[in-house]
Write a structure and sequence with these properties.
The protein has helices at 2-19, 28-35, 49-68, 71-90, 98-126, 128-132. The protein is an all-alpha fold and 133 residues long. Helix 3 (49-68) crosses helix 5 and helix 4 packs antiparallel against helix 5.
Amino acid sequence: MINYWIVLLIFAVFLGLILGQEGYPESFKKFILNFLALTNSYNGAWWFLFTYILLTFISSFLFKILDTSNKFRFLFIILLLYFVSFYFSVYNNLFRNAYVGWLFKQFYLFGTSLFPLLIGAMALKEKWNIKIT
């Protein structure tokens, strides 16, 4: 997060103030929301940051479940979550409340990122790259 904060301070705050760019930093609230990665209004390419933080925090818990449970049942449940999340990512304008809409967006971003993370972890642990070649 430190690298992210440095980039945020340099481009959104300092250059925004020096160049007088409208919307940078705009308000303290907007800056804090971007600083905490709750929004990505300064740079749309940062959409994944909050999802990445969530996945990082729960990854050790998920890897323990993957190690101790039936892998195929667990991955099947995660795959179902992926499909539900993907469906809702397409039909994402169901809520008019901004906070509920934000939570909903984080749910489907998390759900569509969880399956690839766990497949990658499983491939690394089982050494699929060696078995395929």
